[in-house]
C-alpha cells in the first residue's frame, strides 16, 4: 500500500512538472468538504499529524479560490455547485486557538466561508487529552508509567504502549472520569513543557473567541462532542450525553442554535446519528461513510482530511482524486 501510495505521488509530481497536471485532473471534478485541525507557524509534525503551516494554508486557500469554486457549507448542502470545476467547502475540527489566531485572518482575507466544530472540553480542562498525551509523551524522560494498573512502556516513536495498544487508543474509549487521571500521571512533565513554543499545539479557543467566530457572517460554529471521546466506544448513554452537552454549551456561548455535529475521529453509528437528528442537529459531518448505503443519506457528508506531509501539488492531485491512494 505504501509503495503504491508513493509511486502514485511521484507520478503526479512528474505530470505536474511537465504541465500535464490539469489534463490528468480534468475529469475528476466534483465536490469535497475539507477538514483541517490546527494551523501553526511551521507545520510541525513531531507531535502528531494535525498541523499545517500558516504559509502553506494561505498558499492553498489562494490557489483554490483562484482555480476552483469555494463555497459555504450551506451552499454545499443546497448543492449550489458549479459544473466542470471542483466545489469545495472548508471545515475545522477540535476548536484550537490557532484556528482563531492564524486561520481566521487568512479566511477573512480571501473571503472564504468555514465551519468550526468545537469540542467543549475547555469547560473541564484547558487542553484536549490527546494533545496533552502527544506533548508529554514527546518531552518526558519517563520510560514507563502505570495507568489503571497496567504498565505502559515508551516506544521508539515516543508513544506509551501496553499490550500492543497505544495509550491514546486506550484513552479515547475511556469515560472522562477515568481518562482525566492521566493528567496526574504526567503532571510534572506538563509543568516542565517549554512554555510559549508549544502553545499552538494545545491551546483551545475560549468562549469569547468562539462567540466572535459565531458572530462573523463568514463562519459557522458546530459541535464536536464534549471531551473528544470516541462515541462508538463509550457506553451509549455517555455518548448521547457528550453530544447533547456540547450542543447546549455552544448554544449558551454563541446565543444561537447549533445545528451541525462533526463526530470525533469521524466514528459514528446509525443509532447515534439518529439521536443527533432527534435533538436538533440537521447536518452530520463524518470522515468516511461506514457503508455505501450511508452515502445516500444527504444529511451526512464525508470529508477529506488535509495532510501535512505532502507538497501543494500532491495535495491538489489527491484532493481532485478524492483519495490519498
Ligand atoms: Zn476532532
Write the layout of secondary structure elements.
Layout: H1 2-17, H2 21-25, E1 30-36, E2 38-40, E3 51-53, H3 54-67, E4 69-70, H4 73-77, E5 86-94, H5 97-109, E6 114-118, H6 129-139, E7 144-147, E8 150-154, E9 160-162, E10 165-166, H7 167-171, H8 176-179, H9 181-185, H10 187-191, H11 207-215, E11 219-223, H12 236-254, E12 260-262, H13 270-278, E13 283-285, E14 300-301, E15 304-305, H14 312-321
Helix pairs in contact: 1-14, 3-5
Bound molecules: zinc ion.
Zinc ion (ZN) binds at residues 93-94, 224, 228, 264.
Can you name the CATH architecture of the largest domain? Alpha-Beta Barrel
Structural class: alpha/beta
Bound compounds, each kind once, are: zinc ion
Strand composition percent: 15-25%
State mean pLDDT (0 to 100 scale): 92
Q: Which shape, going by the Cα principal axes?
A: globular
- Helix fraction? 40-55%
CATH superfamily of the largest domain: Glycoside hydrolase/deacetylase
The structural domain count equals 2
InterPro entries: Glyco_hydro/deAcase_b/a-brl, NODB_dom, Polysacch_Deacetylase
Domain NodB homology: 86-325
Subcellular location: Secreted
Protein name: Polysaccharide deacetylase family protein
